[in-house]
Amino acid sequence: MLDRRLFAYRNDLAEAALEGRVEAGRFALGEQARIAAPTVPLRPRPEESAGIDTELLLGETVSVFDRKEGWAWVKAAADGYVGYLPEAVLSAPLAPTHHVVAARTFIYPGPDLRLPGGRAISMGSRLTISGEAETRGTRYVLLAEGGAVIASHCLPIGQFPSNDPLEIAVRFLETPYLWGGRSGFGIDCSGLVQMAMAMTGRAIPRDSDMQHAFFTQEIDRAALRRGDLVFWKGHVGLMEDAETLLHANGHTMTVARENFDAAVERIGWLYAQPTAYRRPQL
Description:
4 helices, SH3 type barrels, 3 domains, endopeptidase fold (from Nostoc punctiforme), five-stranded antiparallel β-sheet, 24 strands, mainly beta
């Protein structure tokens, strides 16, 4: 059975790459589209009441396989996640030139931070820049579709703010915990790990079970050091140092740091003991 989170297939329709592997009424390549809202929940079913699997961010690209009754069935280009989102959040493709590297920032109506009506966007958002401007000594990048963003909050695609995932992760301290979240407005445990890796140029899977399978270098608990990953069934965290765990968690409902031994004891009643200690090959 193929994982429905990563393979787009239904009885009536499937992605073209699955032809010969699954049975479907027809196969489609999918049309390219772009996310045109700051954050968009991706759901397993085309219903507002369905749970949120993950989020897509402004400017990210998706392949659209179906549009029906206000919903679109899509696959995310960044991590291959499949699900449903409101059709209204999609716009025509536009090649991004920059990505946001601040945890949160604003799109202002123009190059002036005093202008009202700014939209908040998250780290990881992708922007298409058409120019630059300066107002009262502050530099802005100008967006092809209108608006402006603080220039220091962005970098060209392919450039990254750090080579240390922990340096990225600590920028999210006290960010609210959000099941399925992967933005500076709300994030879950695996979303934090994915974002921390992405902002150092490392693309990894979205969910903790996928990350558990992706990182294969086992280590002993006694060998834990900065940057290592600790997995529980349904949870993952990063070691800030040999004694400190950094993770988005439902206990504090934030991204928080905890003494590792205390965290293992606290988490144990719900998730049992850690299932793996892994060292990313950075």
